[in-house]
Each structure stands twice: as structure tokens, then as C-alpha cells.
Amino acid sequence: MADFTGDPYLVLLNDLRLIPISHYLLASLAISLAFLYCFLEFHFLHDLLTGFRGCPVALTYNSSSRIYHDVVSKCRILHSRYLPTPWLSGPHFQTVFLSIFGRAPAFNYRRELFHLSDGGTIALDWLLNSDDDITPIVLAIPGLTSDSESPYIKHLAFNTAKKGWHIVVTNHRGLGGVSITSDCFYNAGWTEDLRAVIHHLHHEYPNSPLFVVGTSIGANILVKYLGEDGDSVPVAGAVAICSPWDLLIGDRFITRRLLQKVYDRALAIGLQGYAQLHQPIYSRLANWEGIKKSRSIRDFDHHATRLVGKFETVDTYYRRCSSASYVGNVSVPLLCISALDDPVCTREAIPWDECRANTNIVLATTNHGGHLSFFEGLTAAGIWWVRAVDEFLKVLYSSQHMHVKKVASPHPPLIGDSSIDQGPYVNIAEDGMVAAVGNEQVEENMVEDVLEVGDIKHSVERDQQRSQPELDPLGGIVESSEQAIKSLDVTLPVRRCLGLLCRRSRWSLWLLVYIGIVTSWPVVGSVLKIALQKKRRG
After folding, report:
1. 345 and 230 both lie in a single domain
2. Which of 157, 151, 56 is nearest to 375 (CA)?
3. What is the DSSP letter of 106?
């Protein structure tokens, strides 16, 4: 046997040869698992150790929210746990699986071409159940470069139609196989197309409740639209799935780590493919050479979106089109669903406090789910958020909290209702305290004064009508008029006024008595003096 004492490296190599190959394989497997767990956020071991119980759904809402107490509290899915498909235990696995496979159900849409006022064209793809005009309608808004054929949209459409509702998918301009017919393109904050489509649906189906579901960029457009229009939207309820919320934060996040840069590059390739479909218009309105060289979403937005949308800078575009600043003005029941491990839309952009402050919003977050994936079951045949949306809309539809569009009164205000004549006024209490009186109290006092000092005859007639509600029309009028004449007393108005003064302030009554005595004493004294003198002479 050779002597390796002189060279320690040779001794080490000789000892390593003595270790079985299987041990090396086990060590490689352990290192690979550690890499998958840390780098790819693989959580299979955690699910195994917890008995595949899944993670609870965290709900963020205002404590006085009727949407939560009367609607979401009745949603069993939102109060249960979400367990991802075991062999897709990771946000990246789920997101990639959705993009490549998706396992979408097979069916065909009925297409409607909707023409916009600027000459643009949008494809509305319908999945109908009946021909009546009262069945609820769900409007779905796809994400970036997605259309009605995207797997997650088809899952949503199939489940919605299965419960007997209509669903229509509004494809973004230039998608769904429809060419660009104007110089206008969609972007992450372009709400004009959505506003026009919703107005069209509300006009064509005025008796059908309209619900809207936005996904990814479509969710950002939806929330921004709801915040822009407030109470005037004809939407009964809405759901936002995996919204980016703040585009500026999302831009910083997607360029931070290596895996996020992979998603950034993949989305940029999708945008370049979209631009390639409409090259003649992009070549005229944007920087085509810059579009072809774009390696990220920000590059594409710099060379295309910024120029077409007429934004000064890319950051200006991101700030103006972010929906987070519009959350506070949402007046429609809105359910927001996001995964905390979303590899595209970071949790850092979620407006937690704004959602909690708005009584119309309930935010549901899960620890896992990826971006729009949320696969569940051993075969990954279903998507969890699709079931949650289906249940939420069903409970909302059966409740009294569906939003109704606020319509301004077409009649001009009366002169008496002018704001110039309205409160606040000053009221002096009995103890001398001065307080402001609102419009309601002033109107109540005015009505009371009219009833007490006004026409006594009408007051008596109304009292008689209340005491005898089942009189003959002609006989009742004659009888009540006769009773009013009999009960008419010339001193009644004076007594009513005195009673009113007593209720207003007892000090005012005594002051009035004092003034009356002082001012009338000379006359009363003279009369008494003459009366006494005549009595003495007699």
C-alpha cells in the first residue's frame, strides 16, 4: 500500500474514494432541496411537516364594513385554508405551469365587435346561458398581453357559466385576433375602454346586475376606474385578482433578483410580440428600433408606452396609472385577492391601510399561490381564486349590498331649498348657551311654527282626518269643515303663540310680561284714577 503521509491532499483523495457513491447522491439531493427551498421558494417540506393542512386566508377589512359582516363572513372558501397542489409547491412552479399548460376547459365564445368613439375596436367574447335580460353578467378583464383564450380566463368563464350566469371577456385593444383600428393603445392605467364597455353593457342589459373581475393589469385598470368614477359606476360588485397596485414599486421589484429578471424578460418578449402584430402603427407613433432592442418591461415602456400615451417619463406613467391612490374612493363592494409569494406583483405594493380604511373593500391574502395560479387538488384541475370569486359574487347577489349607480336628480332645486337659506343658524338655549342649529332642526322648527301659528282650520281638519280615517269622501269633508268652524276660537292663535314662547324660553315670557306692564302702566293708571274719582263723587 502506498504511503501518502507526505502529501495531505493525496491522503484526502484516497479517503474520499472510500465513501460510497450513494452517499454522494444523497448529499447532492440534500443540496438540491436546500437550493429549491431557498432560491425557488419550494415549500413541499413545510407542507409535509404540517400535514398538508394548507395556509389560512388572511382577511383585511374595516371593522364597520357591512360588506364583510353581511357578505364575506358567509363565504366559506374565504374562511377556510388554501392548500396548493403538492407537486406545484412553489410560486414559480405554479406560475410557469399556468403559462405553459393551464389545463383550461374547452368551449367556444360568441364574439361581438365593439367599436369605440375614437375608431378603435374591441372584441367582446361571450359565454351565454339564456336569452333573458335579468341574468347577472360578469365582465372579465385579462392581464398584460392576455386575452379570452388565456387558461385562467377560461377557468373563470367556465365556472361562471356553470352556475347559470353570463360572462363576457373584454379583450384589450390589439388582442384577441383584432387589429388596431386607431392610434390609441391600451396601457396599465387606460380606463376609457373599460368605461365604454361597461356603459355599453349597462345600456344593452339595464335589468341585469353587472359584476366585474379584473386580473393582474386588468385588476389595476378596474380599481383605478372604480376610484375615478366613485358612486356613478353601474357596477354591482367587483373583484381584483393579483393587482400590481403600485407600478413604480413593481418596477423596482421585478428588477431586484435573478428570478424576477427572468419574468421581466419573459413579459418584455410578450410585449414585443404584441408590438410586432401592429408594427405599422408602432413604427409611426413610437421608437421601433428601441422596441426591438427592449430587454425589460421598462425598456418597452420607454420606447413605446410612454410615447404613445404621451407621458413625460416612464416613472410619470407608472405614478399616474397606479391604482393604489384610487382605493379610498371606491364605492363598490370590492374583493381583492393576492398571494404573498407572487413573483410578479410584490406584496410590498399592497395598500393595506387604504383597504382597511374603506368599508367597501375586503382584502384576502394567502401565503402561497403564485401569480394568478392558485392551483389546488392532486391533479391541479382547479384554481382556488376562481371558486372564491364564484362564491363571493353569489353571496353578494343574494344580499342587499349590491351597488346601485347614483343618478343626479334632473329637476332643479326649489328656491326654498337654496343653500343660501340653509344652516347653520344660532340657537339660544334656556341656560344662555349659544349653539349652532343644522338644516334638519331649522326645517323642523319652521314646520312647527307654521302648524302652530298658521292656518288653524287646516290643522283641525288634519286632526279630524287622523281620528276618522274611513269616512266617506264628500261626507268627511263637510263634517270635518263643520267641526273646524265650531272649534275655531279667536284666542287660540294667541294661546298657541304664548305656548310656543314658553317652550322656547321661559325667561323670554317674563321679559315680555315686564315690558307689557311698564309700557301700559301710564294708561292703566290714568283709567284707574278717573274710575276712583267718579266713585268718590257718587
Report:
1. yes
2. 151
3. P
- Residue of 148, 216, 338, 480 marked active site: 216
State the cell numbers at 178: 383584432
| Amino acid identity for residue 147 in this structure | D
**262: its cell numbers:** 427572468
DSSP calls for 222-281: HHHHHHHHGGG---SEEEEES----HHHHHHHHTTSHHHHHHHHHHHHHHHHHHHHTHHH
Cell reading at 24: 454522494
Do 18 and 116 lie in one domain? The reply is no
- Catalytic site includes residue 43: no
Identify the DSSP state of 482: H
State the angle between helix axes of 217-229 and 192-204 in degrees (0 to 180), rounded to the nearest 10: 70
The H-assigned helical ranges of 302-418 are 306-308, 314-321, 352-357, 384-397
pTM equals 0.74
Expressed as residue numbers, the domain containing 275 is 255-319
Helix (H) or strand (E) holding 210: strand 210-215
Query: pLDDT tens, 382-396?
Result: 999 999 999 999 999
Has 264 been annotated as catalytic?
Answer: no
Q: Tell me how far apart the terminal alpha carbons of the chain are, to the nearest angstrom.
A: 169
Question: Would you state the pLDDT for residue 441?
Answer: 41
Identify whether 344 is part of a domain. Answer: yes
In this structure, are 18 and 63 located in the same domain?
no
Per the CB < 8 A criterion, the answer to whether 121 and 178 are in contact is yes
Whether residue 216 lies in the annotated active site: yes
Give me the DSSP letters along 8-22: HHHHHHHHHHTS-HH
- b/e sequence 189-200, b meaning 16+ C-beta within 10 Å: bbbebbebbbeb
Closest CA to 371 of 515, 266, 282, 523: 266
Count of domains in the chain? 5
Helix H segments across 293-438? Answer: 297-300, 306-308, 314-321, 352-357, 384-397
pLDDT tens digits, one per residue of 444-487: 443 333 333 344 344 434 444 434 443 343 344 334 444 443 44
The catalytic residue among 342, 373, 390, 403 is 342
Strand order in the sheet with 121-127: 58-61, 361-366, 334-339, 237-241, 210-215, 137-141, 166-170, 121-127, 110-115
Q: What is the mean pLDDT of residues 112-122?
A: 96
* Alpha-carbon gap, residue 207 to 404, rounded angstroms: 12
